[in-house]
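Recap from last week: sequence in, structure out.
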Amino acid sequence: MSPVYHELEDTRHLVWLADAARDASPPGQRAVIMATEDIPSVYVGAAPEITRHLATKLAESLRVARPPERARLLETIQAQLSGDGSPTTTARRLYRHRNTVLNHLRRFEQLTGLDLSRPADVATAVLSLRALHRLAPEEL
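Predicted structure tokens:
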């Protein structure tokens, strides 16, 4: 969905934004996404080759963890990155102890090689998670 506009010359740009938002929605799901409000999803939707690369790399790095641990790590990192970045807040949201969240974050960093204190690595983690959720397991 593009933002509301009033000038005809804005049409081309805003149709492009609406197309990007449409492509940001995972296949088979219906969701309303504002292109200007969810840039990571728009990026992942617009760059299929990069999306596949990021998802595959994340899936491969987490493959050494057993499925239950992998699920917990993904749930924790998703909550951490979609929240305010505070492990305490993440722990409250997930009904877990703060130290458990910290352990999950450390394990995620260890397996992926990403350092969640570095903004570039946080951006990579956000995009990788969006990419992983976008692709079906058989595509990885």
